[in-house]
Amino acid sequence: MRIKKDMKLADVIQLNYMLIPVIHRFGINLGFGDKTVSNVCQENEVDLNFFLQLVNAYHDKDYFPKEELQTIPVKNIVNYLQMTHASYLNEKLSEIEQKIISLQSEDTEDQKYILLIRNFFEGYKSELTEHIMYEENVVFPYVLTVEEIIKTQSFSERNREIFDAFSIEKYEEGHDDVEEKLMDLKTIMIKYLTPPANSTLYHTIIQDLFKLEEDLNYHSRIEDKVLTPKVILMEKSIKNLL
Questions:
Q1: Could you give the count of Cα atoms lying within 13 Å of 148 in the half-sphere of its Cβ?
Q2: Using CA atoms, how far apart are residues 90 and 181, in angstroms rounded to an integer?
Q3: How confident is the model over 128-169, as pLDDT tens digits?
Q4: Cα dist. 177→124, 192, 220 in Å?
Q5: pLDDT class of 99 with cuts at 50, 70, 90
Q6: 128: buried, middle or exposed (CB in 10 Å: 19+, 13-18, 0-12)?
């Protein structure tokens, strides 16, 4: 079932509660009563078309309107990706880390295995954080600059400096797969470690890792299938100006 602009947003969440964090990343908080998707987007100054395309892409894994999403301004795409980054750094990673620490603090004879899980997760957290900060500090400022050059059809001294120092095509070639280590951690916990006494908490951590991986996959699709090819085309257009 496709989510449409005249549906009540509360009904959208009843349909798929996993959309709550996605909607929150648009700056929309719960408590919208019987307002429709269109009403809520208008009140929160959210691009309705972008909202609909994105929540439908999250709602249905087989639906990915690549061409429609590529019509969205770069600034809107980057805003959404930055909100997603913030949720990873400020919420999801910390929540999983705290659960692992809680597991470690329990009186159990499986401490060495739990320490292994914690060390592995800390390594993953560090790798993902470094990846995110590079995008925040280098990639996003660059793509916003590209959009500004296209919009003004001219270079400022600063824009020219940023444009000459980076290339989205080269970035794409070296774009790391940050989900690989996460998959390794899940495999270790599922296949090779015996759950500790608090198996409920152990299982909750595994479920959280699955949810994080799924969210990262959606995030990567936006970066790799929408933002990157869109900026590559913009780069080519700019080079024709030179």
A1: 14
A2: 20
A3: 999 999 999 999 999 999 999 999 988 889 999 999 999 888
A4: 12, 24, 9
A5: very high
A6: buried
Question: Concatenated DSSP letters for 165-226?
Answer: T--HHHHHHT---THHHHHHHHHIIIII----S-HHHHHHHHHHHHHHHHHHHHHHHIIIII
Helix (H) or strand (E) run with residue 70 in it: none
Which two tokens mark 199?
Answer: 């198996």
Question: Per the structure block, which two tokens stand in for 200?
Answer: 């409920």
Length of the chain: 242
Residues in CB range of 60: below 8 A, 6 or more apart: 2
Amino acid found at 127: E
Question: DSSP characters for 82-111?
Answer: HHHHHHIIIIIHHHHHHHHHHHHHS--TTH
What is the predicted pLDDT for the residue at 47? 93
First to last CA, the chain: 47
SS3 per-residue string spanning 32-63: CCCCEHHHHHHHCCCCHHHHHHHHHHHHCCCC
Cα 9 from Cα 34, distance rounded (Å)? 7
Q: What are phi and psi of 36, to 5 degrees?
A: -80, 170
- How confident is the model over 168-203, as pLDDT tens digits? 887 777 666 677 888 999 999 999 887 777 889 999
Question: Could you tell me the pTM of the whole model?
Answer: 0.87
